[in-house]
Amino acid sequence: MPFSASFIIEILGTISFTVSGVYSALQKRLDILGVLVIAFVTATGGGTIRDVLIGVTPVTWMRDLTLPCVILITTPATIIFRKKVRDYKITLFLFDAIGLGLFTIIGLQKGLSVSLHPAVCVVLGTVTGCFGSVVRDVLLNQIPTLFRTEIYATPSIAGGILYFVLLPVVDKTVVEVICIIFISGIRIIAFTRKWRFPSFL
Amino acid sequence: MPFSASFIIEILGTISFTVSGVYSALQKRLDILGVLVIAFVTATGGGTIRDVLIGVTPVTWMRDLTLPCVILITTPATIIFRKKVRDYKITLFLFDAIGLGLFTIIGLQKGLSVSLHPAVCVVLGTVTGCFGSVVRDVLLNQIPTLFRTEIYATPSIAGGILYFVLLPVVDKTVVEVICIIFISGIRIIAFTRKWRFPSFL
Amino acid sequence: MPFSASFIIEILGTISFTVSGVYSALQKRLDILGVLVIAFVTATGGGTIRDVLIGVTPVTWMRDLTLPCVILITTPATIIFRKKVRDYKITLFLFDAIGLGLFTIIGLQKGLSVSLHPAVCVVLGTVTGCFGSVVRDVLLNQIPTLFRTEIYATPSIAGGILYFVLLPVVDKTVVEVICIIFISGIRIIAFTRKWRFPSFL
């Protein structure tokens, strides 16, 4: 994927993840620092877990400060304009969906770069895209919403599998673009149609 | 310990840990993906924490996919047959006890392989055998049962100490077998006699 | 800073962190092992997270057993004398404040030793000084107090910034001493005057 497109999506995705972190934190009445930590963890947690599990350390956000800066600007802006930001719910959801696609592919490729099995790479893509919200929920003392309410990880997993299906037959850049569109697309459809997995018992 | 015996116990232990993860997740009404993540984390969490703390990365389950496959088969099977599986409670408890023994010794030996102090190796053995349930409980938003209801970690710790007591005087393979039997034995006795540690205040 | 002074503060700080862990655990009616794990995690958790994120493994407490021994002695002593220990609340608070200062500077310098950006080093200092309590609270199933009730991380952050402001103009040992006094001092003033950050919504 062209670097500049990837870079812009990464920033938009990070903004969206940060905003969602800020709202979750505000609901629990945290102070400024608490809100900042939760926002940071929501936006960077998935990639951090991935880096720690595969041993790529110091973790990514310590070596490239672009995303930390985005979070540091987005957090106070969201707090101050928290009533106005709500009007952009749909825009933020789109950023989130496209961010999920990009982060999944980034995570998957990091797995490939350390020669892991494709199945493990799919898991790493999903962890990168989805597990920031798990760390956020653990810190906010609630059961991760990822595990029960919405179809969020499934597009990630499906897109990761699609990546390895297409890779032998299509150019790598094209595969990346297709998979990101595919993941964002399923995520948006699943959300608008309120698809859900069954729960048991 | 002969490789094949170790391998079979590892699989039986993993099945038992997975089943316990599935039941815990079902009680919290998670969806399929949530149940799978909890089952996975219950079965692999202890070893993953150990690997991350000692810096053996990518963590073990990423490099050998046997146990992930066992978990991937056991989870849906347990969900589907969840009423029947309950009849095998005692069998599963025995798998769990023997798994605790084996995982403790595996963890302890990983510590030795990176030249850590015996006391740290005993801790690593205990972490490997017992901390999957801690990660599970944290994700399910409950205080880890390891910390309050049952004697679970104590056999692990005692068996780890026994390992270093016997090692200078007995053949290594024999020490391994003795320690696994010892840990499983104490675990079974502690469970059937409902031994408990006191809590305070 | 002279090694011996640093060493003594490290032990006093660890004692204080351990005692605070023991009290938190006792309130949740954990058994002996649970209390020990919580005490251990409170005292070592910040440094452990730092080491894992920057890839310095095996983590520090596995390579130098001084602090684990301090925790292992302090925990049962605190349990046994738990009514008497309360009379030393102010002493323990002073140990805690000075420990916060020292651990912050230790963490910051670990970041420098792997060539990270000063801003990241300030974060690592704060994580080292403050995040043991976050792990403790997550394991005890409560929202981290760090995120909402007291000004705890702020002195750490301010002291970290001061470190890099002074470093070009003052001798390194002097900078260390000034920053530790500065962090402890703000922490003590913030506590006694009950400073708080605002929370929102």
UniProtKB/TrEMBL annotation, chains A, B, C:
Endpoints of the signal sequence: none
Transmembrane segments: 6-26, 33-53, 65-81, 88-108, 114-139, 151-167, 173-192
Broad class of where this protein is predominantly found: membrane
Residue stretches making up the Glycine transporter domain: 8-81, 94-166
Keyword Iron among UniProt keywords: no
Topology of the protein relative to the lipid bilayer: Multi-pass membrane protein
Any Pfam family hit: Gly_transporter
Subcellular location: Cell membrane
Family, similarity comment: Belongs to the UPF0126 family.
Full protein name: Trimeric intracellular cation channel family protein
Organism per entry: Filimonas effusa
